[in-house]
Amino acid sequence: MGFNCGIVGLPNVGKSTLFNALTETAAAEAANYPFCTIEPNTGRVAVPDPRLDELARLASSASIIPTQLEFVDIAGLVRGASKGEGLGNQFLANIREVDAIAHVLRCFEDTDITHVDGSVDPLRDADTVETELMLADIDSLERRMTALVKKTRGGDAEAKRDLALMEKLLPQLADGVPVRKAGGLTQDEEKRMPQLQLLTSKPVLYVCNVAETEAASGNAHSGAVAAHADSEGAAHVVVSAAIEAEITQLDGDDKAMFLEELGLEEAGLARLIRAGYGLLDLLTFFTAGPKEARAWTVAAGATAPEAAGVIHTDFQRGFIRAETISFDDYVACGGESGARDAGKLRIEGADYKVSDGDVFHFRFNV
Fold first, then answer.
1. Which of 195, 215, 241, 304 can pair with 18 through a Cys bridge, CB separation 3.0 to 4.6 Å?
2. Are 117 and 50 in contact (CB under 8 A)?
3. Largest CA distance in the chain
4. Which strand ranges, in their side-by-side order, compose the sheet holding 319-325?
């Protein structure tokens, strides 16, 4: 099961620098000119989770395997992207393929790095990108609705449902309301929404890229973004792409000292990865034993058989039961044996909904 987060924003806001730091590679060329990223770059990163280390210690695991999240570095958008400006059509198509959007906003002043609009204003930049995505969605809906009208005349029931949904979304988009905030939808329409693959239906995480000296406290620009994010129920994080790039070159002790000097408890990327993970409404469950302690990812609301299927399709096909211990009980009882003796190991069936932190041992028969 793959989950990915697209890194978007205007040119020269630090997207590629951030991506390089995320993946600890130079796969994406960071340069002071637009469109240095001609093709989307993809990298998978480990999701920081201290619970995994604790499980590995208690289970005396030989190896530790964290869960991962995929990030896609998408080239900078400009005004007119929805009409094909600046290679816009290609990049909008790339955004359509991701599950969520990490929108990098420039929140630092630097006369050596040009801004496409000549000044730093992250809220204006956010509005520019959002507008282009909404215009692209309007164009997409208008084209599809024309075809659907013909199908409805032939009595196509599914086409009628899709057309009714689009007729609700189109005027709201025209009024500047992104699809993810659209109102007046039925439960069935909410379920059908992902099938439309609309750009503004995707959840958004605002990433405030600040100067090195402001990584711990942020600044007025990042404060404005935080207020904007809160007003629309979105998430936000403050990072310094320049600092994150430096951190990737340091060893453990040097890295800790560097962060301490900057007044940071952890690297900004750790917060960014966790925020991206949360943005996708994902849960982590664990398996732990002498061979390995491993974290796995499922969408919130997944059942025990679906979680088993993440490990292997045979586990889901032949699912019998899930022997389950909560992370807190696993730790409090000193591991699986202690949890079993204390009566904290539960037997869950096929209708059990996974909780974050569950430690599973699946029983199956195929």
1. 241
2. no
3. 69
4. 63-65, 292-299, 282-288, 359-364, 319-325, 346-348
What three-state secondary structure class fits 33?
A: coil
* H/E element, 17: helix 15-23
Q: For residues 59 and 54, what is the distance between their CA atoms, to the nearest angstrom? A: 9
Per-residue confidence (pLDDT) for residue 1, from 0 to 100: 46
| Residue pointed to by tokens 């530790």 | 64
Triad 19, 21, 25: Cα angle to 5°: 85
Buried/exposed 53-80: b ≥16 CB within 10 Å, e otherwise: eebbebbebeebebbbbbbbbbbbbbbe
148 CB-contact burial (10 Å; exposed 0-12 / middle 13-18 / buried 19+): buried
Distance CA 162, CA 137 (A): 15
* Amino acid, res. 237: V
What pTM was estimated for this model as a whole? 0.82
Average pLDDT of the residues in 135-164 = 89
Return the axis-axis angle of helices 122-153 and 220-231, rounded to nearest 10°: 30
SS3 71: strand
224-254: string of b/e by CB count within 10 Å (b at 16+)?
bbbebbeeeebbbbbbbbbbbbebeeeeeee
> Helix 15-23 to helix 268-279 angle, to the nearest 10 degrees?
90
- Residue 290: C-alpha distances to residues 57, 62, 235, 287, 362 (Å): 10, 6, 38, 10, 16
Angle formed by the axes of helices 187-196 and 157-174, nearest 10°: 80
Q: Which of 197, 206, 219, 231 is nearest to 130 (CA)?
A: 206
Burial 319-347 (b: 16+ CB within 10 A, else e): bebbbbbbbebbbebebbebbeeeebbee
For residue 102, which phi and psi values (nearest 5 degrees)?
A: -100, 105
pLDDT tens per residue, range 314-361: 999 999 999 999 999 999 999 999 999 999 999 999 999 999 999 999
Residue 89 is predicted with a pLDDT of: 57
- What H or E segment, with its residue span, contains residue 320? strand 319-325
The answer to whether residues 291 and 63 touch, using CB atoms and an 8 Å cutoff, is yes
